[in-house]
Design a protein that fits this description.
It contains 19 helices and two strands. It is mostly helical. Among the domains are: about 5-145, no CATH class; about 145-185, no CATH class; about 325-369. Strand 1 and strand 2 (about 10) form a beta hairpin. Helix 1 (about 15-45) crosses helix 3.
Length: about 375
């Protein structure tokens, strides 16, 4: 297609080039005008010292002078101040008529003079002229039209300075599966920790996560123990959880393998029986009669226990004929025989004297410690 038939917007390529040439002249005129404003502002309030002012320069006086000038010519204080600074950084012999005043203003932030003067004569690679965004990239400023991922991220950060906007943007982005998948595990953890600072939210999230088998499977044993211990500080919760766990045969067996746990359970059973008995004796009108019957029942229970032990031993011991027990097995049997012997001595003492107190050594043997 002939170049004259190529359209740019609503005009031909040829007409577009005419418009560009015309507007470049306008931009040059505007740049000259902006430099004139900056030069005159410098004439009224010269810049002195490093950074644009000397140690003795009185900022309020300078501001008042530039504000008055801005009001008199119908511009803002910031526009006059910016023109003054830009003019101070670009001596007339280094100003480029083919480069806009805005580009001069951006590149004015290059501190080194030689570098600054060389930069304006050297457009970015692949370009014949400076653009405003190219100048901003040169000095590290945020561009108006971001192109690279880094520039786009910077633009998003700038728009999301407001906390509510940032929250809304984050929420929306994390709803996109492809975005969430690219967030690192460390960042996801930080997000969750930040969101769960509220105790109610943390409790709800933890409850939901622990309902997912795939999640609980990855939790370490120690962390699982801590997770159970913390909610069971409440006595009613601890009671309900423990009751449920002890109804599981494997759990109950392993729990009772712990000497302290077994001792506490036995102690609890004895204590529960004692409390029930005391309650009965305090409240039941038949308690005196029952106490007489109990003595007879205790006698029968004791005789029955002795008979059961003798009968069990009579059936079991003959089975050891011609069998050699290992050292560990012998140690266990001897330990239990010692417990039985101590128990028999205790029974004889109780029968002869009526005293059923247990000394420390006997209590140790009976508890299996």
């Amino acid at each position: 297609m002939p170049e004259s038939h190529i359209e740019v917007g609503s005009v031909s390529q040829q007409r577009c080039e005419q418009i560009v040439a015309e507007l470049r002249e306008v931009v040059e005129q505007q740049s000259r005008g902006s430099f004139v404003i900056g030069d005159r502002a410098l004439e009224i309030e010269p810049l002195r010292g490093v950074g644009g002012r000397s140690a003795g320069e009185r900022v309020p006086v300078v501001r008042d002078s530039l504000t008055r000038l801005a009001d008199d010519i119908g511009l803002s204080f910031s526009a006059v101040k910016g023109a003054r600074f830009t003019a101070s950084r670009w001596p007339k012999e280094h100003r480029r008529p083919d480069v806009s005043f805005k580009v001069h203003r951006v590149l004015a932030h290059i501190e080194d003079e030689e570098e600054r003067f060389a930069a304006i004569c050297t457009p970015p690679e692949g370009r014949t002229r400076w653009t405003a965004d190219a100048a901003k990239r040169r000095v590290g400023n945020r561009v108006e039209i971001p192109v690279t991922p880094e520039e786009k991220v910077s633009a998003i950060h700038a728009l999301a300075r407001d906390e509510e906007v940032a929250a809304a943007v984050t929420t929306e982005l994390l709803r996109r599966a492809t975005v969430a998948a690219q967030v690192s595990a460390e960042d996801k953890v930080r997000v969750v920790e930040e969101l769960t600072r509220d105790e109610g939210v943390a409790a709800a999230v933890t409850t939901g996560l622990l309902k997912r088998p795939a999640v609980t499977a990855q939790v370490g044993r120690e962390d699982k123990v801590r997770a159970v211990e913390e909610p069971t500080r409440d006595e009613s919760v601890a009671t309900e959880v423990t009751t449920g766990l002890l109804r599981r045969p494997d759990v109950a067996f392993k729990a009772m393998s712990d000497d302290r746990a077994r001792h506490e359970v036995n102690h609890a059973q004895v204590e529960r029986g004692r409390q029930a008995r005391e309650h009965f004796e305090r409240t039941s009108p038949v308690a005196p009669t029952a106490r007489q019957i109990e003595r007879t029942m205790e006698f029968m229970d004791l005789v029955t226990a002795c008979h059961s032990f003798v009968a069990s031993a009579g059936r079991t011991v003959p089975g050891l004929r011609d069998r050699q027990l290992g050292e560990d097995e012998k140690a266990i049997v001897h330990e239990n025989v010692a417990r039985v012997r101590a128990t028999l001595d205790w029974i004889e003492t109780a029968v002869d004297t009526g005293k059923v107190d247990v000394d420390g050594e006997l209590a140790r043997l009976l508890s299996g410690q």
